[in-house]
Amino acid sequence: MKFTRMRMSYRSQNLLGQIKVRTGLTPNIAGRFSLCLSLKDQSIPNPEEFDEKGSEISPQVLFGDYEDMFLALFLFRLKKDGLDPELYLNRMLRAHFNRGTIALYSRIKDMSDFYPMIKNERLP
């Protein structure tokens, strides 16, 4: 089981561009934070809420050396949500990415916002 290329929503593409201006973080690095924020949210995002009119990103670019770790996190989450990984892995990757990007954007005005966010989002 592997991730495939993902097309983000147009809104997420724009938000990631604004995050880059605010922080200097590239979309793949900000995207990793986005995924973590969404995975921590216990609700299940709806993939149908997000268009596919934004940029495409490959798993190698999005995850870098951490692809196996994110795959394990996603397989665990899909099992917890009762979703078949064969059918939902890449659909839910896109949904979590887009939902998380919206959440990240509202929390980050500049680089100094990351430390408090990470500190507050850590598991107890």
Topology:
Layout: E1 6-7, H1 10-23, H2 27-40, E2 56-57, H3 59-63, H4 67-81, H5 85-107, H6 114-121
Number of DSSP-assigned strands: 2
Report how far apart the termini are.
31 Å
Strand content: under 5%
> Which blocks of ≥5 consecutive residues have pLDDT under 50?
none
The major sheet is characterized as: 2 strands, antiparallel
State the helicity in percent bands.
55-70%
Secondary structure class reads mainly alpha
Mean pLDDT, to the nearest integer, reads 93
Instruction: Please state how the strands of the largest beta sheet are arranged side by side.
Output: 1-2
Total DSSP helices: 6
What spatial form do the alpha-carbon principal axes imply? globular
Radius of gyration: 14 Å
Helices and strands, in order, run as EHHEHHHH
Keywords, separated by commas or semicolons:
124 residues; mainly alpha; two-stranded antiparallel sheet; 6 helices
Structure, described:
The chain contains 6 helices and 2 strands; from the N terminus they run E-H-H-E-H-H-H-H. It has helices at residues 10-23, 27-40, 59-63, 67-81, 85-107, 114-121; strands spanning 6-7, 56-57. The protein has a two-stranded antiparallel sheet. Helix 1 packs across helix 5 (85-107), helix 2 crosses helix 5 (85-107) and helix 4 (67-81) packs across helix 5. It is globular. The protein starts with 5 loop residues before the first strand and ends with a helix. The model has no long low-confidence stretch (mean pLDDT 93).
